[in-house]
């Protein structure tokens, strides 16, 4: 999952989970409203798939990724 503000995610979700008593075995985050807001095509299973989608949308090829 990509989260635009990882510090906020950490503070609002992970910190309470790490201090829960009793200890949590699982955490479920419902992203239904986010899907409705931005559309299912805005979700990617990996960082690499996000980068590839971005490069396709921008018309960049593999040689345009930087680094020479």
Q: How helical, in percent, are the residues?
A: 40-55%
Q: Topology as H/E string? A: HHH
Distance between the termini: 30 Å
Radius of gyration: 17 Å
Report the strand count. 0
Number of helices: 3
Strand-residue proportion: under 5%
Q: Which class do the helix and strand fractions yield?
A: mainly alpha
Total number of domains: 1
The main sheet comes to: none
- Overall pLDDT level: 74
3D architecture notes:
With 68 residues, the protein is an all-alpha fold. The chain has one domain. It has 3 helices and no strands. It has helices spanning 6-18, 32-38, 47-58. It is elongated, with a radius of gyration of 17 Å. It starts with 5 loop residues before the first helix and ends in a 10-residue tail after the last helix.
Set out the fold topology.
Blueprint: H1 6-18, H2 32-38, H3 47-58
In a few lines, what is going on in this structure?
The protein has helices at 6-18, 32-38, 47-58.
Give structural attributes.
single chain, 68 residues, mainly alpha
């Amino acid at each position: 999952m990509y989260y635009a503000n990882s510090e906020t995610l950490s503070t609002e979700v992970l910190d309470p989970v790490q201090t829960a008593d009793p200890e949590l075995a699982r955490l479920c985050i419902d992203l239904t409203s986010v899907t409705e807001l931005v559309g299912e095509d805005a979700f990617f299973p990996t960082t690499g798939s996000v980068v590839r989608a971005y490069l396709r949308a921008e018309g960049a090829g593999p040689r345009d990724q930087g680094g020479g």
